[in-house]
Write a structure and sequence with these properties.
The protein is mainly alpha-helical. The protein has a domain of 69 residues: Winged helix-like DNA-binding domain superfamily/Winged helix DNA-binding domain (Arc Repressor Mutant, subunit A). It has three helices and three strands; from the N terminus they run H-E-H-H-E-E. The chain has a three-stranded antiparallel beta sheet. Helix 1 crosses helix 2 and helix 2 crosses helix 3. The longest helix has 17 residues. It is globular, with a radius of gyration of 17 Å. 18% of the residues are buried.
């Protein structure tokens, strides 16, 4: 019986969805403003569990990931979504299966 890897690539989560939705607008946000928007949207969806501070850390980590992937531009303390931000919500392409070498 074959076992799957314990780790798999997952679809974007709700925090990423709300970050992308907020940053898709043409305005720039400081993190505090951006988090307030994301937190309010998640509370409206009844998806803001785990405490506000933990959610703030998760949102900051996801935002920095988007910056490092080149989907969000950081200028000073302001963040602005770029055109490639729409790719953040598409699932990643599966990796090709490795062929065993003899």
């Amino acid at each position: 019986m074959q076992r799957k890897s314990a780790f798999s690539r997952r679809l974007p989560d709700l925090v990423t969805e709300e970050l992308v939705a907020a940053l898709s607008k043409k305005t720039s946000f400081e993190f505090k403003q951006l988090f307030d928007v994301v937190h309010e949207k998640l509370r409206a969806r009844n998806a803001a569990s785990g405490g506000e501070e933990m959610l703030r850390l998760r949102a900051y980590e996801k935002l920095q990931n988007l910056v490092s992937r080149g989907m969000v531009k950081k200028t000073g303390k302001k963040y602005k979504g770029l055109a490639s931000l729409s790719k953040a919500l598409t699932p990643p392409a599966p990796l090709p299966a490795a062929t065993p070498t003899k």
